[in-house]
Amino acid sequence: xxxxxxxxxxxxxxxxGNWSNADHEHRMATRIASLQxxxxxxxxxxxxxxxxxxxxxxxxDDDKPPAAKKPKHEQPxxxxxxxxxxxxxxxxxxxxxxxxxxxxxxxxxxYEQIESSKLRLATSQIQRQVTALKERLEEWDPVxxxxxxxxAAEGAVDETSMEHKLKLHAxxxxxxxxxxxxxQSEVVLLHAKHGVNSxxxxxxxxxxxxxxxxxxxxxxxGAARPAWEVYDFDTRYQDPHVKxxxxxxxxxxxxxxxxxxxxxxxxxxxxxxxxxxxSSDGDNNNNNSKKLFPTPQPYCRKYLSLLTQLxxxxxxxxxxxxxxxxxxxxxxxxxxxxxxxxxxxxxxxxNMYMSTNRPASARKLWERLDNDGSAWIRYSAALIExxxxxxxxxxxxxxxxxxxxxxxAIRGNVYVxxxxxxxxxxxxxxEYTEELVERGDSPSGSILEAIEYGCCVNDDKGLxxxxxxDGSLEWVRSVILKVLNTSDDEGSDxxxxxxxxxxxxxxWESKLAKEEEEYERERNExxxxxxxxxxxxxDNEESSNHEEEDEEEPxxxxxxxxxxxxxxxxxxxxxxxQAPSYDFIxxxxxxxxxxxxxxxxxxxxxxxxxLDDGDDSGSGTDDSSESEE
Length: 629
Hints:
Blueprint: H1 21-57, H2 88-93, H3 102-106, H4 111-138, H5 142-154, H6 162-194, H7 203-209, H8 227-230, H9 240-254, H10 258-261, H11 270-284, H12 299-316, H13 320-334, H14 345-355, H15 359-368, H16 375-391, H17 399-412, H18 414-421, H19 423-429, H20 434-439, H21 447-454, H22 463-467, H23 472-484, H24 488-492, H25 502-506, H26 508-536, H27 541-549, H28 556-572, H29 591-609, H30 613-628
Helix pairs in contact: 4-12, 12-13, 13-14, 14-15, 15-16, 16-17, 17-18, 18-21, 18-23, 19-28
């Protein structure tokens, strides 16, 4: 039985209880002490108030220094203030902006953690888009796509787009908030009109207001179901399942797998596809050949773009296996038989192989992309062949094979060769190259691609990869100087298809002038089009907003002028007249030149030592005998 303060048992004494007299005395003493402290505190406050009043009545002395503040441990208890750490999270949460996770906003993450989370979210978003578009291409229905195209032309919104889903989600949130506010206001009005405890707004009272549903709303089961729902004896009755089955069979006959049918032609338009089909018919010499299925654009190109973006994000996150898978899928869908590419997936894949030290995979890639004229592919092939020949000394790799690949790369983009041969000079001449390096979509063989490749400061691609290889830049310079210092008669004997010719190096002037003319022509055409649009739509504000949104293209004339300046500096300094270092050149083609250089060095040393002609001849015979041996 629980004890209480009072004594309910009659046989006990009246003064007996759960609390003893000692406890009662202790409580009384504590109470008296607290009252005494309270009384002293009031007296102290009155004394301080009187002192302040007296100080206000006394005249002020400017020379008197201000009273020093007492230290904290000497202050009275009522003046000490301890910091309040309660509700710290609630006070900090008040400063969090709307539509922001409080935990994320208040977290103390570093820059790397924040960037990694951004990359992860961007990767998941692109992955969802890739998955949705892939499912659509694998089950391509021409009839449904035609209906969607007509609806889009009429102004209908694509319900599968991410923008439409986000907009619809925002509208639903707004409607839900308005509905909750309306319901709350109705409840408040009902409470105000009928009272809080009234049953007017309750479900039981509301049900009495409505009529009872009739038999037409009943859902009977078993024997109670009507006969017309069970037996199909009505001629007007149509089974919805049979109709749906017929529609599904018709759709299955129409559906095409675009990824399987159009593999290798995802980047082609209808005109280019017709040319490809004509060329294939001409090669096969068969008039009854099957016509190729047309690639549905722009969905195929959009799929290639999304896959390339996904691979780039995976590469940035250092998920090399996933990035390789995405880039290889882009190569298969885009095809390797075309001389150009609308994506930079193959360039990024080659850079990934080079940076991760995968020479075998890189070799297979450039052998597969033999028709590609990009500097990223051809110069990477030359670098790998140089490493295999000069540094690793592998079987099958020779100086001739390395020079052959370098000559092929120079024919693709001659500007990169000078960037690699004299990087310090071009580093001084070229400016504003950061935008081009980060852009990554320059056309093959252009000066913009050369700047993007030759001005890259990263160690895992471009010039940084060449600079990290021993003797690679000196080898390129030696090959260029050997060709420039060779006469036209000597160079004409070489096979133009395999070996580098002086005309290949001197073609940079004509190519650069052609690029400048094309850039000026395109710029003039764009200016004329803008002028015509301004005349037609002078009062329309949307035209001006559209002009501001257009991305500015790089000025090719400015970069071409910088390249010309660097070449002039090299010519004035006599860099192209210097003798190459023959340590990096094959010995089979230049044995005669080496002998001449050896004779010249021997004669110079003999003259410096003051030797006689006989001694010189003797030394020459000794040298010749040694060389014969």
